[in-house]
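Predict structure. Chain length: 250.
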Amino acid sequence: MNASDSIVIIPTYNEKENIEKIIRAVFGLEKCFHILVIDDGSPDGTAAIVKRLMAEEFADRLFLLERSGKQGLGTAYIMGFKWALEHTYDYIFEMDADFSHDPNDLPRLYAACADEGNDLAIGSRYVSGVNVVNWPIGRVLMSYFASKYVRFVTGFKVHDTTAGFKCYKRRVLETIELDKIRFKGYGFQIEMKYTAYKIGFKIKEVPVIFVNRREGVSKMSGGIFGEAFFGVMRLRWDGWTRKYPALPDN
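Prediction complete.
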């Protein structure tokens, strides 16, 4: 039995080129992590690959939730967070399937929470310059200035507000009212960080290098960026008017 205090949540849609490689990369780390794949009905057979790996090799540390069709990144993570809390994990991670997030950085995010006492560790592309490889310059600028825009509007002092590579301590997800999180794309990533910040959790940005996917097709769309852009104004209004949950004692 490979027991672990940590679960890595990986949402997928048509990731057959990457999913087995990323699973083996995570399971090849010295620290034992479990993985929860949340597949949105991938027609390319992504879920079938996960099921084969569960049956043949990783029954005690690889798990799968299947959904019918694309329902949004945010709702996938909310489902995964609830599952992880029900299964008593202490550290819950977000990570992409396409190797844009380096599995070798998982122990660094874990250490930032487990050893250094932070509640949320963010794998940050921008805390130490611009650490992005193989992205078109237009997309780099859009992502970088989106984070600058969030900082300007909200006063939230995180450099990479749209980052999707993170480690949460259990108590963060227990405290955030997950059913009240509204956004589904990049806005979801901003809203979760901002909510944690407003509650008073201790947040650390851990510098990472983001590498654009080598295989498969990007799921990015203009609508995702639009949600983030206009949603920030609503978050700022919430920051003035909403009553956030109290910071837990421990």
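Summary: The helical segments are 19-27, 46-56, 73-86, 106-114, 137-154, 170-175, 186-199, 222-241.
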